[in-house]
Amino acid sequence: MTAPTCRFCRAPLTQDFVDLGLQPLANSYLTPAQLKAGAEKSYPLHTRVCGNCFLVQADDPVAADAIFDDGYAYFSAYSASWVAHAKRYADAMAKRLGLTSQSLVIEVASNDGYLLQHFKAMGVPVLGIEPTANTAEVAVQERGVPTEVSFFNDATGRDLQARGIAGDLMAGNNVLAHVPDIGDFVAGFQHVLKPQGVLTFEFPHLLNLIELVQFDTIYHEHYSYLSLLAVERVLRANGLRPFDVELLPTHGGSLRLFCAHEASSHQETQALKDLRAREHAANLDTLTGYQGFTARVEAVRADFLAFLAKAKAEGKSVAAYGAAAKGNTFLNYAGVGTGDIVAVFDANPHKQDHYMPGSHIPIHAPSKVDEIRPDYLLILPWNLKDEIMGQLAHISDWGGRFVTASPETKVIS
């Protein structure tokens, strides 16, 4: 059997990163009828690292349009902290770039308008480009954010350019990992970005994934796991370059990469040079930096299963909060189900009264926490731990305690 090839540079992929086995699509929540029909599909969730360009990537056994269809259940606006993060970004960019009513901000993968609404409120013209029709409709109908329903790529960028559309600021936040053909996706920006325009990408930093064993951020809709090293190669292959970076706490540690045309006047910052040096020190420019990750992932699973066994032996009930994709990866890799975790609570009404893919744990509104009164509440979206603990601090009234499972299982008193 021939080795698969890198989705960017086409070199043979011979080095495993981690294999998480067969898993259902992480955002494919089941209705009661679908659960009863028992027709759920699972696919290999196997990641490898390219020894040439060092892009860490998942195999792609399922087409993108099967993941990002009209049933896609992720709506950014249901996380208050994420909307607040978007507003801080909008305020900072408007100030840094001097955006006015004559500017144009274009967001690719604009979801439900959670970010562009803040620019619109400032009187700055906006345009969203979003592949999922149901979230785009919310952006238009509820937030008045003009949105085109389309996958963004080189052809899309050329089409926008032909229509005279050009952005002073373009944003691709938490989308770069979601595209199967990362080169074709990035190629589109060079056509739409103004000569001195600024393009920002936000994405979880691969170095944090490795150092903090954040394997639950791996799922089928995340095709790539990104370092500065790998992203810079993709940018430069398409006439673009990074010039600045900010380190963000979001998604367990992300990069906000500021990019521009190769020929633009934007000067490279010391922050960018420092990050390059940090990745070099971590051996992300050699295969050595990626070896041994599987053993660390297996240790996280063993630690969590030991916690569940102890809770069961003591007659304690365990529930979870946050029907997040990362939670589905974690639960399915651990092989747990309704006999281990009685329910998952989530504020997103599009997920409530559904079942978690694979584990088939029922999803309820947060108000049901007070009815079920679990002894332990596992926080699946650990990146929102503080927000969730603040909202549900009252579980201590019945002796309930919070639990996190990454990078090790911790019971929080």
From TrEMBL:
It comes from the Bacteria. One of its GO terms (molecular function) is methyltransferase activity. One of its GO terms (biological process) is methylation. Residues 249-407 form the C-methyltransferase domain. Residues 6-68 form the Methyltransferase putative zinc binding domain. The keyword Methyltransferase applies. It comes from Phenylobacterium ferrooxidans. This is Class I SAM-dependent methyltransferase. Keywords: Methyltransferase, Transferase. It holds the Pfam family Methyltransf_13. The lineage of its organism: Bacteria, Pseudomonadati, Pseudomonadota, Alphaproteobacteria, Caulobacterales. InterPro entries: Methyltransf_Zn-bd_dom_put, Methyltransf_Zn-bd_dom_put_sf, MeTrfase_14, SAM-dependent_MTases_sf.
